[in-house]
Amino acid sequence: MKTIKKTRDYTRLREWGVHLLVLAIWEIACRTAIPAIYLPAPSAVFMAFVATIKSGELGTQLGQTASVLFLGFFLAMVTGMLVGVAMGMSRTLGRILDPYVNALNSMPTVALVPLVVIWLGLGYEAKVFLTWLVSFFSIVISAQTAVQNIPHAYLDTARSFGSRPLATLNKVVIPASIPYFVSGIRLGLARALVGVVVAEMFTALSGLGFMVTTYGNTFKINFVFVPIVTLAILSVLLNAILRWAENRLTPWNRGRQR
Amino acid sequence: MAPALEVRNIFKQFPDKERGITHDVLVDVSFTAQAGEFISLIGPSGCGKTTMLRIVHGLETSTTGSVLCNGVAVKRPDHHRALVFQHFNLFPWRTVHDNIGYGLEVRGDDRGKRTDRVRLMLDLVGLGGFEDYYPHEISGGMQQRVGIARALALNPDILLMDEPFGALDAITREKLQRDISAILERQPKTTLFVTHNMDEAIYFSDRILVFGTKPGRIVEEVKVNLPRPRQADTIRASHEFAEIREHLWSLLSKEMQREDH
Q1: CB distance A252–B92 less than 8 Å?
Q2: Which residues does chain A have within 8 Å of residue B107's beta carbon, measured at their own beta carbons?
Q3: Which domains does chain B carry?
């Protein structure tokens, strides 16, 4: 037991060593060969972080981004699951909406940004709407697929115990679909992150996307890295939370192949 | 007294649209079951015995004919008849406890009543201590115990079993047969049992309905007058058992020859 733990600690140490080595090489390369206009040194990025945190800029913009992301994504989750489940339950509804959902899901929704700006302006609503728009359809599709592919045996069993359609939806269709819902939501989240940043870059008033554009336009390259790194950390964090939630929601699916 | 179950002149046809014909799945099937009687439906695959069971349950409808359960016509599944499936059909997202309580939940029993009943069933099928396990964490034999407990929890008038041991290995099958037999000795229940295992049918049944194929129909009704309680080992060694088995085999092999032609 003890040796295993020791070996694991040692491996960890070695991995961290590699990461630090890469950072060191990067730093040296920037100081000797690469002009700062192309790639900032890690130390310069760190200084930019300190500066933006101290001035409160990073906090404010991160708050803006998070607020748009969470509202837009939350709305996409709720509406996407409702529409997806409805489309999965009703063959007619599914057939009618399928082409639109498929088209809007597979096209680059970013192309709709100018339209959204004309309709809703450059404010908060426009950004929330865009975030909703890019993540909504993938959530719809996975919810629909889940409901359509409920094993027949489950429905047979429900009917055999005299279950009425509403109870079957509640007690069988929804719980059986949860693992698929979660994967749809994870997909949707990835898209929502893209959506919120694109929206901020276009409307260019606030948020991490706005930071990217303004610092990029003024060639403050080390400051451009601040929102980029923050976004990377944010998405890793959100994915970890989703995975945790998935485990909590489907304890029966743990260690089980589907 | 009215019989617990009355099946009258059931015909079932399936349209085969591709070939433009209809298949006669069941032709003029009639039988009755008295309260507490154990009846097996045996026959080669495709003889409609499972369809017959599902019609009695209400999961499928007959083309003509009627099913009366305690004098009331069966139209759809309800808690008076409970079905045990060949492949268990447990819900993987429910624990053993909640799977057993599923039928009670659908019926609308309140939580307290449900918990009491489930606890009783857990003891009955010998699964005490496993109530918080999920189906994939327990063996096939245990899963089918849950399936049986889920059906018995409703205290149905008629218990329907569709090859309940069919998906189990030989040893588990043997063990579960003995346990189910013991449970039914303690709590007699009108039972319809679909199988294609002759030994199983004789061991459990008061009567065996032998089905034939093409079209599906009852070929003969075989009475099993072996005394109860039955001990699996002594029963199988008995002369009567061998005789009934021989007779069943002659009926079934004749049906299978018909099918070959």
Answers
A1: yes
A2: 161-162
A3: 1-77+191-261 (3.40.50.300)
